[in-house]
Structures are given as structure tokens and as C-alpha cells.
């Protein structure tokens, strides 16, 4: 049985905050979440002391996971990593005389909630551990006295518009703020204060809260300042600041929990009256609000979409020269160990997906202008339900894992053609088992990729293309057309044409069962590509 503070410097079996009174019968008594812990406050040298008791846990509670308190954050994080993906760290303040002094509780979300829901006057925080995939969140606030002419509804509307515009610009994601934003309110007579947790479509997550700052918050802040929207005075009315606090995206950040107040205050975070997140739900529980308000989701996030900023305009999506991807361990959408079967291959930019070919090249041109596709392989799972294409590059060896180009080892990109993500891997032994985060493909590229149904229904009655025509791809796509794609009827029609020709081309290749690795003409082309490759060593 876990001892609450078995790995602490001293036994800490208490938490401040009285337990809610509740009726118990014999059957309920057998499965109590935690025996009552009384917080007896004594004033000695202005210290808040608590009576220490040995807490007894039921077998059912033990089955829900650990429940350990630590004095030091690093010890709590180490224990969390030992316990596995379902464990979390929650922090709490325990002394009025030492404001900011915290203890750290390691537990599973389920076990913590069973204990936490019975607390009164709680002051707990979610510790957003560094490197954990996170929901987008905001700390929105302003002081009423220095902003006496501010209209809350107008400020919030302006802020929501800026968030929506920036998400669309950077990630090509469109949201309805009413449906996507869970809003918690802790406002007082002197201060407007809200926490906003954003549930992006497709369950998109950021690699971490730290990456959130550089890849999104900085761009959002610049938009707000440049446009003069959602700008307020600071507490002393000495300078203008943004409505959202941009300093809450640091490593191992503590973010106050739903139903908790700051130590010594009585303004807990509650569901805001303006929140429409649960508009379509007839009845919602405190537990559901608690789970939805966590920055690090309670569910297993290994297979969730991890966002990376690939564009700051509406043209070809590209990556920044600076590696924005943090080294977090994620599982690739298509595991290298899976039994994918290669059924088509070729050299150069000759795959059935010309727009996708150009997109992969455009990403890597950030590091090497002369990058090209050396080889591509199209494969599918044995059941034929999913496909992926692998691009082997020439002229660029940039690896996200090390944040620079490899000196000798090549890199390659894998694109999941059903889930529409791409990620980078390499052949370096030190990078084995790692990959970059997943980059979502922009909408117009998704629209250009034929589905399995499109391929099945494609007609090759006009004849199977010749080998020479196959090397040029299914259609002669103008690069300028790709670069200037806009969301209008003409561009959508052009993309639809590319999609149809891609389906015909892929089906024709499968019917002819061409193995381009044994084609002499294409082998000569590969040798020319390899001869032109820039092999300059990079530090």
C-alpha cells in the first residue's frame, strides 16, 4: 500500500481544506475515496500548521493508481515518469506565511478527482509537465479600475476573432469559439479573470505548452498589438498590454484547477456564465468539466495529432529554420515495424501526387534550396485500408531530432495518405526510433490526394500511360499555380482535376505492376541526382 509521503523528506499526510460533509452507509464506507483529513489551523508565528494523520487507503483506491506527496518538483516529476502515462502532477500551496511554497502530489487523474471533489476551499494547480502534448490555453485578465471604460463582451469578441484568425493563418484550422472554448471564471469586483481551454477540431494538441509560445502565442500577440484589438491597460495604467497573459507558457507551469482558489482567497474557478461549450449537453457533471479543463488531456495522447506551424501565409506550407519541434516521444502514425507492403516506387518528383511532391520539397527548402526527391515508395497495409508514401531526399539532411543536418546520413519523410500527416525520420543510428512531430497537410493538398474509393472507381479505358509519361506525373502541374492556390471555384476545379488524374495514374501503375527500380532509364536519372547532391558537411 502506498504511503502518502513515502519518498518525501518527511511524512506529509495532510492537505488544507475541509472535507465536504456527506452521508455514508455501510456499503459506501467500504469504498471511501480517502478517509477524512481534518485541517486544524493554528496561528503560531503566522504559520499555517495542520494536524498530521496516517491516511488509510482502500484496495479500490490503490487500484486507481499512486497517491504520493513530494516536497520537490523534480522528485514528483521523476515519480510521475515511473508510474506511466496515466499519472499526473498536481501542486498545492500549504502555508499563508510562505506564499508560493508548494507541495506536489503525484496521482492518476481518476484517483485525484475522487479525492479532490470532496475538498472545500481547495487551492490546487495542474502542473503542465515539460514536453507533454497540451491543449491550447489562455489566462485572460484585466483590472477594472485602470480599464473603467472597458466593455467585457467587446474585448472577448475581439480576442476570439484574433485567436480564430491566427489559428487559420498558422495551422489552417477554423474554430467556432463558442463550441471550442471551455471558459472558467474567477472574476472579482476589482479584476476580470478567466481561464480558457481550447478544444481544437480533430483533437489537435501542441507538442508542449512551451512550443505553444513561440509557434502560436507570439504570432497572436503581434496580431493583437498591430491591430489594436483586445488591448488593455496594466494594473497601474502605465502601459498597454494584451488581454491574455503571454507569460504563462513556461516549463512545468502551474495552472489553477477548476473549483480551486488562490491561497487565502475565495474566488474559485467556476464555469463562466458566458461559456457555450456545453450548450448541446442537457446535463453536465463537475467531473466532466474538470476533465475538459485539464491542459494535459486525461486520455492517452500517443496517437493524437501534434500540431506544428508550417505556414504564416496562405501559400505553400513551410517550416521555420529554427527547430520548433521539441524532443517529445511520440509514436509514428505508421510504425516502421508494421507490415506495410510496397506496391509502387519511382525516382524524382514522379509520384502520383505532384502537389504533395512539391509540398515536401518546399518544406525542406528552408534548409537547402537545392533539395530534391531522390526516390519515393508507395505502400499499404495488408488489409488495403491505409496507404503511405515515403520520400527519400537528395540535397538536404536536416533532422528535427538533432536540430541540424546530419553530416553523412540521409533523411526521409513519411506521409500518411489517410490521416493526412507527414513526419521526418532519418537513418542515423542515434536517431533510431525517433521522428519529428506530425505536420498536418493543408486543406488544398488533402483535396488533391485521391482516396482508395477514387482509385477503385478510376477508369483507365483510355489506355495505360507510357513509362516516359509516368515519370512526369499524372498531369503537368504549374508550380506557380500551386504556389498561388486560393480557395475559389477555379482553384478547387484545378485541384479536383489533379485528384482525378492522380487516381487514374496510380491505378494504371498498379495494373501494369511497374517496378521502376529495374528500369535502366530511371537508374540513370537516379545516378544524375546523386551526382548533383550537395554533400557538404554541416556542423
UniProtKB/TrEMBL annotation:
Superkingdom of origin: Eukaryota
Enzyme Commission identifier(s): 2.7.7.102, 2.7.7.7
Catalytic activity: ssDNA + n NTP = ssDNA/pppN(pN)n-1 hybrid + (n-1) diphosphate; DNA(n) + a 2'-deoxyribonucleoside 5'-triphosphate = DNA(n+1) + diphosphate
GO cellular component, one term: nucleus
A biological process term (GO) from this entry: mitochondrial DNA replication
Alphabetically ordered keywords of this record: DNA-directed DNA polymerase, Nucleotidyltransferase, Transferase
InterPro entries assigned: AEP_C962R (IPR056443), PRIMPOL (IPR044917)
Ranges of residues in domain C962R-like N-terminal AEP: 106-273
GO molecular-function term, one example from the UniProt record: DNA-directed DNA polymerase activity
Similarity-based family: Belongs to the eukaryotic-type primase small subunit family.
PANTHER family: DNA-DIRECTED PRIMASE / POLYMERASE PROTEIN, DNA-DIRECTED PRIMASE_POLYMERASE PROTEIN
Name assigned to this protein: DNA-directed primase/polymerase protein
Organism name: Parascaris univalens (Nematode worm)
